[in-house]
Design goal:
Elements (H helix, E strand, L loop, with lengths): L4 E6 L3 H10 L5 E6 L6 H8 L3 E5 L7 H8 L5 E5 L4 E5 L9 H12 L26
Length: about 140
């Protein structure tokens, strides 16, 4: 059996408790919960060195994701949005930009990566599909 991937669930929401129970059944995933009341959350998460951090998108502490991504750009943050049955995966990459020409090149590269609004339109969910993804939680 290969190495288990460490998934950290950050927060106290009841929804995350259900996610924790679901993920704990997966033998290739190590699941750990970190509460927002922990002193120096950033240092705690860094010491755990997770492969992925999961948060409840609607929780008041979700804004921590941006500072975490800045500190740990290689670790994706998975934001679960129960209200509209979506999972938003936030990732971070940093690029050196010492001048305007380099900035323009980064903008062109990122705008042309296939994720812009003109190249990938969101498909509406079928009628009656609202929250079907989350019903088991």
């Amino acid at each position: 059996m290969g190495q288990r991937q460490l998934v950290v669930l950050f927060g106290e929401s009841v929804f995350l408790e259900s996610v924790e129970a679901c993920l704990a059944q997966e033998p290739d995933l190590g699941v750990m919960r970190v509460h927002t009341t922990v002193d120096d959350v950033g240092q705690r998460l860094a010491s755990l060195n997770p492969d992925l951090v999961v948060v409840d998108w609607n929780a008041p502490y979700c804004d921590f994701a941006l500072s975490f991504l800045q500190a740990r750009p290689g670790v994706p943050v998975l934001c679960l949005d129960l209200n509209c049955s979506k999972v938003v995966v936030l990732t971070s990459r940093s690029y050196p930009a010492a001048n305007a020409e380099e900035l323009v090149q980064i903008v062109r590269d990122q705008a042309g990566n296939g994720h812009g609004p003109t190249t990938q339109l969101e498909t509406p969910a079928p009628a009656g599909a609202h929250n079907n993804l989350w019903q088991e939680f």
